[in-house]
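Table 4 source record.
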Amino acid sequence: MNKRVYLDHAATTPLDPQVLEAMLPYLTRFWGNPSSLYAEAREARKGLDAARRSVAELLGCKPQEVIFTSGGSESDNLAIRGAAYASLRQRRIRPWRSRRGDHIITSAIEHHAVLHTVQQLEKEGFRATYLPVDRYGFIDLAALERAVAAETVLVSIMYANNEVGTVEPIADAARIVKGKNPRAVFHTDAVQAVGTLDINVDRLGVDMLSIAGHKIYGPKGVGALYVRSRAPLQPQQLGGSQERNRRAGTEDVARAVGLARAMELACGEREARTARYRSLRDRLLAEVPVRVPYTQITGPADPMRRLAINFSCCFQFVEGEAVLMALDLQGIAASSGSACTSGSLEPSHVLVAMGISEELARGSLRLTVGKDNTLEEIEHVLAVLPGIVAKLRALSPLWRAGAEAAASPGNPPAGN
């Protein structure tokens, strides 16, 4: 195949030409500061307000409940820090409730934008519970119910995992939390969910929801945070009254318009796109373990309970980074997990939390399909991948001994 094959759409997506077309007027003609009063500013404000209304309509919320941010990581930070510090402020006002609102619940497989933020809050005096997951990446709902207490101020559970594609039962989790502590804020990182899953905030039962533009063929550098009315939130970025005093800084109107247009396209074409994604992904799920021995599929065994774009696995007796470099030489862009931890030498925290050994986790591969991928491209990957893995294994001193041990009675080749 002469052209390159891009299979890392969970990391980022190309900008849709229709999105760029919607953005261009706000980069060239309507470039005024939307907080000013003159004509150029009013045109920019119209674009910003229209974008906010569009995002709100797709989320099923009020426009004033949408905060534009710089992306998913900022949205997660704002939600978690904003809720935690709002609780801290209340405790300072009412010191006799000293333990009230100092407890945070999250899962062991969250994106680092969530995990690192919660860990930092622990250093500042908050307490945190990290929910375990099963071998497929699903949170333990019984453990969640046991963890929720009167002191719980925030629960943050991701909607869909960026590495293994697990779609969490967010509506069930939210019902459990609200049933035990109605005042606890429920946040979900839905960055990977937009365009393939239902994102109506009332049906999900969430108080806060994070999204990012560049995961859905929109621009980088823009996202949004839904915050339910009356949900406690302390601003984290100060210096202006923008976004209803919740996030200071001149709004990037062009990017906000681009986010809204990308969401309109993704949600409007959701059924058709999802069916196409699944047909390509299911081909990978079915064929890779057959063509490459000692392969373990990671994530849900039920393809309907994992993201439609996501295929993920681990190869025994091989390093995932070596597989990625070999695929790149063959014109195939892939990933071994989260793009935000690609520079780390540590095995995936998601895979380790799912009970996968560190050794096996180092052989991980993630292929995430997009709207422009073709069956021909998938067949090309299936044709070259077995040879790549076989060649790398032949160079590994662990291969012969490991394969013999794995093939001994009671240890069949790894698979799903």
